[in-house]
Design a protein that fits this description.
- This is Essential protein Yae1 N-terminal domain-containing protein.
- The chain is mainly alpha-helical.
- It is 80% helix and 0% strand.
- The N and C termini lie far apart (81 Å).
């Protein structure tokens, strides 16, 4: 038995403990970040669907909305239709 084996085993134990702690922390933060991204993307998809429905309704009614402010990308899309 080498006299350095206990130190290597201790080092390996610390490595495994650190890895496990980091992995567990990453799982918690990863799930939270994934939840936030999912909510953001879900909201964006929902807004796209609402905008599309709104365009269909206003187009079928022949309505044109006037806006005096600075145009945004969604308003530019309405003008393109």
């Amino acid at each position: 038995m080498d006299f350095l084996e206990p130190m290597i085993a201790l080092d390996e134990t610390h490595y495994q403990d650190g890895y496990k702690d980091g992995y567990d922390d990453g799982m918690v933060s990863g799930k939270e970040e994934g939840r936030q991204v999912g909510l953001k993307l879900g909201f964006q998809d929902m807004m796209k669907e609402i905008r599309l429905k709104f365009r269909v309704i206003t187009g079928s009614l022949g309505a044109k909305l006037g806006y005096e402010g600075r145009p945004t990308s969604s308003e530019q899309d309405l003008e393109d239709i």
